[in-house]
């Protein structure tokens, strides 16, 4: 197992209601960001949407924010809804400082996001 794999895991899981969830756990930084980048590339950005669950995220640097912005750009290009869930208050503060709280859609839980994405 390489160092980044110990620091970050991304577990993709489709939900019965449709949205595709990427469960992120660990530290998202320069070394581990390729793991989430690959998961975002493989996610089916379609009309049912993608949820990135950050409730297990313990650290996120600017590289991690860049990966999330890339996911947002992909959602905009494909017309697929994107939600971030489980963002801790200290992480939300970073989103607010850089103005991304006005860009992303946030929900407390994946279940809440799934309900919001249902037609």
Number of strands: 5
Residue fraction in strands: 25-35%
Number of structurally distinct domains: 1
Treating each run of at least 4 consecutive H or I residues as one helix, how many helices? 5
Percentage of helical residues? 40-55%
Q: Write the H/E string, N to C.
A: HEEHEHEHEH
Looking at CATH, which topology would you report?
Transcription Regulator spoIIAA
Strand arrangement, major sheet: 1-2-3-4-5
Low-confidence stretches: 1-5
Annotated CATH architecture? 2-Layer Sandwich
The average pLDDT value, as a whole number, equals: 91
- By CATH's scheme, which homologous superfamily applies? STAS domain
Q: How would the blueprint of this fold be written?
A:
Layout: H1 3-7, E1 8-14, E2 20-28, H2 33-42, E3 50-60, H3 62-78, E4 82-85, H4 89-97, E5 105-107, H5 110-117
Parallel strand pairs: 2-3, 3-4, 4-5
Antiparallel strand pairs: 1-2
Helix pairs in contact: 2-3
Q: Your description of this structure?
A:
The chain has 119 residues and is α/β, with parallel strands linked by helices. It is built from 5 helices and 5 strands; from the N terminus they run αββαβαβαβα. It has helices at residues 3-7, 33-42, 62-78, 89-97, 110-117, and strands at 8-14, 20-28, 50-60, 82-85, 105-107. The N and C termini lie far apart (41 Å).
């Amino acid at each position: 197992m390489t160092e980044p794999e110990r620091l970050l895991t991304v577990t993709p899981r489709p939900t019965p209601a449709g949205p595709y969830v990427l469960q992120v756990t660990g530290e998202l930084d320069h070394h581990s960001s390729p793991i989430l980048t690959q998961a975002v590339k493989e996610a089916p950005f379609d009309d049912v949407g993608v949820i990135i669950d950050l409730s297990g995220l313990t650290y996120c640097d600017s590289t991690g924010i860049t990966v999330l912005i890339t996911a947002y750009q992909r959602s905009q290009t494909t017309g697929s809804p994107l939600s971030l869930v489980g963002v801790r208050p200290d992480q939300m503060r970073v989103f607010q400082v850089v103005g991304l709280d006005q860009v992303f859609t946030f929900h407390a839980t994946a279940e809440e996001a799934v309900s919001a994405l249902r037609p």
